[in-house]
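Query structure, 231 tokens:
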């Protein structure tokens, strides 16, 4: 069963949100007038126009609340239900405006769970494919029953290598905690269980070598051995 829970990412989200909630921008107020502290306006930025509107509507429950005494747990609960949010910066603009600046998640890949397609997002969540508009964005497909943390770690290793993540069109995970990757030009690279950085470096060098331009399979599973086939 696909596991996409990333407790560290979620914990960081909540900590950042807690800190950011205490940011206040003070505007000028007539000293003779009575200070107004009720939230009258909420402005959300960072998502599509439709999703900004939906998020604003979800936050309407905090309207008329004192801007200095917002219920942080309630706010975290509301925003945490939005799978498209990577992180949030909230600014209290005195006297009555709450600015919610959202950093949207990155869509990493597509996978299938119980015959339903999901998007793997950078915030550790899986988003139903039907809830996302990818426009012309092409994402790789991930096959197998894998743990999100394993996939995220693999992506980090790939990002540090000479390979580009968008050069890969498919990932295959095996129960032995090993990955195969298929590039856009249909080269299947069988990676070892360990030393992935070294294996990717070798794979990149071979892939760029004209002598292997017709190669279809590159097997690096055995240490100090390179097996290539043209089938």
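Result returned for the query:
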């Amino acid at each position: 069963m696909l596991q996409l829970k990333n407790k560290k990412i979620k914990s960081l989200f909540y900590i950042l949100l807690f800190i950011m909630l205490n940011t206040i921008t003070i505007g000028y107020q007539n000293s003779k007038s009575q200070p107004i502290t009720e939230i009258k306006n909420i402005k959300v930025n960072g998502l599509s126009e439709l999703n900004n509107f939906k998020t604003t509507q979800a936050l309407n429950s905090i309207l008329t609340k004192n801007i200095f005494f917002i219920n942080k747990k309630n706010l975290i609960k509301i925003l945490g239900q939005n799978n498209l949010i990577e992180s949030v910066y909230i600014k209290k603009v005195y006297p009555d405006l709450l600015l919610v600046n959202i950093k949207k998640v990155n869509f990493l890949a597509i996978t299938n769970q119980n015959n339903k397609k999901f998007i793997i997002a950078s915030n550790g969540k899986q988003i139903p494919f039907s809830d996302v508009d990818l426009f012309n964005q092409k994402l790789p497909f991930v096959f197998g029953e894998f743990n999100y943390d394993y996939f995220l770690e693999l992506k980090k290793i790939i990002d540090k290598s000479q390979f580009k993540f968008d050069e890969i069109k498919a990932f295959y995970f095996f129960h032995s905690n090993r990955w195969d990757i298929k590039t856009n030009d249909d080269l299947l690279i069988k990676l070892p269980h360990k030393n992935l950085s070294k294996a990717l470096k070798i794979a990149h060098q071979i892939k760029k070598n004209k002598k292997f331009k017709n190669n279809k399979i590159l097997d690096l599973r055995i240490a100090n051995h390179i097996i290539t086939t043209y089938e």
